[in-house]
Structure formats: structure tokens, C-alpha cells
Amino acid sequence: MKQICVFAGSSTGHNPAYTEEAKKLGKAFAEKNIELVYGGAKSGLMGVLADSILQQGGKVTGVMPTELFDREIVHTELSSFIEVDTMHERKAKMSELADGYIALPGGFGTFEELFETVSWAQIGLHKKPVALFNIEEYYTPLKRLIEHAIEAGFVPESNRSILVDSSDPYELLDKLNTYPSSDQ
Fold it and tell me: Sign of dihedral through CA atoms 66, 68, 73, 79?
């Protein structure tokens, strides 16, 4: 894996563990020479992760639509920055660049990006691994909801394996690297 797209909160949340674990993931990215592809903001867990990677000499590419420049604080110290016109173009460009995806804790925007990516995998638009960085069991309720959807017959049993997860950044990256359907 050379480039991983990360979806993450534009805030850091209330639990300091979210910030500390995002920094650890950044360290793991830099050590494994993996480039971060993300939304390009300096705020929240997005910024924490980008800063952690950059501080250790790693590479970070930000992708942001012009319309968000006023609302999101643009990270000006990235390895590369791609300006696009719309949110749809942002997601398409991040997906084009990425070998896989990770969701850190976040809100509605993170959920939307995660579910779109999972939906694309479900219908065969990509075979890239999608992972949950399950810091402090943040995504455990989502995992239970997915199990409920499988039991209720709305998600095929075979799609259970679309998402991988871990609370350890190194194990998470290993799972992405060994994902069976990876397009690497």
C-alpha cells in the first residue's frame, strides 16, 4: 500500500485518546512510507493525523473543494494539495489516489464518506480494503448495527468482510495490506 485515504473528524472529540491514537497512526504511516490522502484541512483529527505524518517526514496529499476554503482551515504545509470544484470531485479524486481507506472517529461527514466507500465496494466499483480505526471502541456500535442489518437480511452475509477493524494502528495497516481483494 502506497497511499491510503483517511476519513476523520473535523474536531478532535472529547476523549484525548482519539488525538493520541491519531498521532500513533501517523507515526505508523511515516514508518511504513505510506502517503496520506485526505480532505486537506488543518482542523480536528484530520489535522492531527496530517501533522503527525509530516513531523516524521512522511507525505500528505490534501484534496479540498474551493467552496470549503472559508469553512475549513486549509492545511498549508502539505506535501501536495489538490483543489477541486465540488465535494463529489473531492471524493472521486481521493478514491482515485487511494489503495485503501481508513475511517477514524468522526461525525456525519466521516460516516457519509465511509458508507459511500463501503457501498462502492459492495456493488463492485472497487476492491480496495476499507477499515475502521476503532479507537476506544468508537465504531463498536456501528459494527453491531452492521451485524443487525445482516441478521435482518438487508446486508448479505458475504459483505461482512468488506470492513476490517482494529484499535491498534500497526495491526490495522497489516490488515489493509493483507486484505484478500486488494487492488494493490
Answer: negative
Burial group, residue 132, by CB count within 10 angstroms (0-12, 13-18, 19+):
buried
Q: Is the pTM of this model over 0.90?
A: yes
- Which domains occur in the chain, in start order? 3-177 (3.40.50.450)
133-159 pLDDT tens trace:
999 999 999 999 999 999 999 999 999
**Residue 174 in contact with residue 32, Cβ under 8 Å?**
no
Cα–Cα distance measured from residue 34 to residue 39, given in angstroms and rounded to the nearest whole number: 16
Q: Of how many residues is the chain composed? A: 184
Pairing of strands 130-133, 100-103: parallel
For residues 110 and 9, is the Cβ–Cβ distance under 8 A?
A: yes
Instruction: Tell me the three cell numbers of residue 157.
Output: 452475509
